[in-house]
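Q: Got a minute? One more chain.
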Amino acid sequence: MRSTWKPHEEHGTLSEKEKRELPASVFAFPDKRKEPLTDAAHVRNAVARFDQVQGVDDEERDLAFQNILAAAAHYGVDVVETDWHQLGRRPHTPNPAH
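A: Always. Here it is, folded:
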């Protein structure tokens, strides 16, 4: 699966209005507009909270992981996981990569 993520000029903490105005291409889960990937901190947050995202299926998780990897490469964030299954699927699942 190919990433749909594209960098955007909005960075840092976003207001709800700013988040609503972001293009879908900056989100890990673009169809659901979940997990904006607008800077390195947001990328790290998306990795840390990946297993807490609700209302998405495995295909959406596949795409989200590819988007996270693309954003991580762009912002210089190291991601040790090679597959989203390593991040877990439910809240508080252990991450075997750490």
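A: Residues 16-86 form one domain.
Q: Perfect, thanks.
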